[in-house]
Amino acid sequence: MKKQFYAVVVVFIVLAFLAGCSNTSEVAEQPQAQEAVPEPAIVSKPAQAEPAPDVTLDTVFYFDFDDATVRPDVRQAIEAHVERLKTHAKLIRIEGHADERGTDAYNKELGMRRADAIRDLLISMGVSSSQIETVSFGEKNPVVLGSGEAVWEKNRRVELTKV
After folding, report:
1. What CA–CA distance (Å, rounded) separates 163 from 135?
2. Which band of pLDDT confidence, cut at 50, 70 and 90, is reported for residue 26?
3. Which terminus of the chain is more exposed, N or C, with fewer CB under 10 A?
4. Is 96:114 a contact under the CB 8 Å cutoff?
């Protein structure tokens, strides 16, 4: 009988102790040991051919007056488009534009030569011609209205758009 009494007392003490530990005011007052937080595992990602989704690629490329030669400074942007187009069979439209100087027919032809220059560069870098559509608007869709070199240089362009 004595053993049972001691067992009940021990259980009571343990329960009282545990109940006392669950009191939030006492727990908050006692400094707690910080638990070790495991370091996140380093996961190496395979090299991606496509730029990250948050990367914005240049889609407008400018040309010199009366010229359809692709400038050397746009090559890196074109290469980024090539990588994206090779990995994802997207369709793009290349839109050629010209400034207001010259006849409508000449500017439409100049816009097409500019669009074709970008198209040819994309194809030479491995993009399928079936992914590309070209069109020329000539001087019909200026991005900036007015006259003068600052306006004209903004309108001498090629734009890449999704189809």
Report:
1. 12
2. very low
3. N
4. yes
